[in-house]
Write a structure and sequence with these properties.
The chain has helices at about 45-50, 75, 95-105, 110-120, 135-145, 165-180, 190-195, 215-220, 240, 265-270, 285-295; strands at about 5-15, 20-30, 35-40, 60-65, 80-85, 150-155, 185-190, 200-205, 210-215, 220-230, 245-250, 255-260, 275-280. It is of the alpha/beta class.
Length: about 325
């Protein structure tokens, strides 16, 4: 299997005057759960449709499993399982019939494989699709794509509208698939539930990649430094002024800074400064990283620079 499942370089897409994707660079390794996060309208679905060969980009290079979605769409779709937020299934068919229909496009053992997944998901195979709940429809779509044993699974808002128990089961199955060597690309705006399963993450904001990498490493790259000043009008000491801070929140005497590459030595020095109390080093959650990547960056009041976005939209850039 390829070490890189998806390679994207310089990808841009425009619909009329609307620039949806802007110079997207992305590398997705094999055998991981990769979360593509973003607000509604950030460009997630357009990016996925380009990966699947349904939409042609205006510029850039895209390789999925070493194949071009534009030049080799049929070969690609035999190796990729794709499930949208509301899969289109033939409502008049039963679960068993739709599996038989799909088996014509795959290998001889497709029906047998589907039967195993249907049993695992407790699917009522004699029930017509129109009578299934949304959770059962989602499980049916998942069983249909898993039966072909794809190397890559792509899900666009897969848990939208599902009840909590079905969502939990679905997300657990994503981790199991990655453990089997499959690559899972999961597009969502549900940050908290994604954090429980993803080991890599990319945050898409206004058509650009604002943050990208292994989740644990990203959390170690940014620190939230919280402290209180005895005098709220005082300028903090040099140990704080010299930090690479890019976002500030103030509530009375309490200040929280988002800081790049906070060292243990710098933190200890700040703790020992006079006029400062309640010093805390907080490891950010994925939700906090998401907010920092997609909101206007507020500079500390003691800096002369005006409000600005994170340089280049990337938390990792100095």
């Amino acid at each position: 299997m390829e070490t890189s499942t998806i390679h994207i370089e310089g990808l841009s897409k425009r619909f009329g005057n609307n620039q949806v994707l802007r110079d997207v660079q992305l590398e997705i390794p094999a055998g991981c759960v990769y979360a593509l996060l973003g607000e509604n309208g950030a460009g997630k679905t357009t990016l996925i449709r380009i990966l699947m060969g349904y939409v042609k980009p205006n510029a850039g290079t895209v390789k999925v499993l070493g194949l071009s979605p534009q030049r080799e769409p049929f070969a690609l779709r035999r190796r990729v399982g794709y499930v949208s937020d509301f899969p289109v299934l033939y409502d008049w068919m039963t679960v068993k019939q739709i599996a038989w229909f799909c088996s014509a496009f795959y290998s001889a053992n497709y029906s047998e494989s589907f039967g195993r997944w249907a049993t695992q998901f407790d699917l009522p195979q004699e029930t017509r699709i129109r009578y299934l709940s949304k959770g059962m429809r989602a499980k049916t779509a998942l069983a249909l794509v898993l039966a072909s044993d794809p190397d890559l699974l792509v899900f666009d808002e897969p848990t939208s509208g599902l009840d909590p128990l079905v969502r939990k089961e679905f997300l657990r199955s994503m981790v199991d698939l990655a453990a089997q060597g499959k690559t899972v690309l999961l597009s969502s705006h549900q940050v908290q539930e994604v954090e429980r399963v993803a080991d890599h993450v990319a945050i898409l904001h206004a058509g650009k990649i604002a943050l990208n990498g292994e989740l644990d490493q990203l959390k170690d790259t940014v620190a939230l430094l919280r402290f209180s000043l005895h005098d709220p009008l005082a300028i903090p000491p040099a140990s704080i002024l010299n930090l690479q801070s890019f976002h500030c929140e103030i509530q009375g005497r309490s200040i929280q800074l988002a800081v790049r590459q906070l060292s243990a030595e710098a933190f200890e020095q700040i703790k020992n400064e006079t006029g400062i109390t309640d010093v805390q080093w907080i490891r950010p959650s994925l939700e906090e990283l998401f907010i920092l990547s997609t909101r206007e960056s507020q500079a500390p009041p003691w800096q002369a620079s005006p409000n600005k976005k994170i340089p280049g939209g990337n938390l990792l850039r100095a």
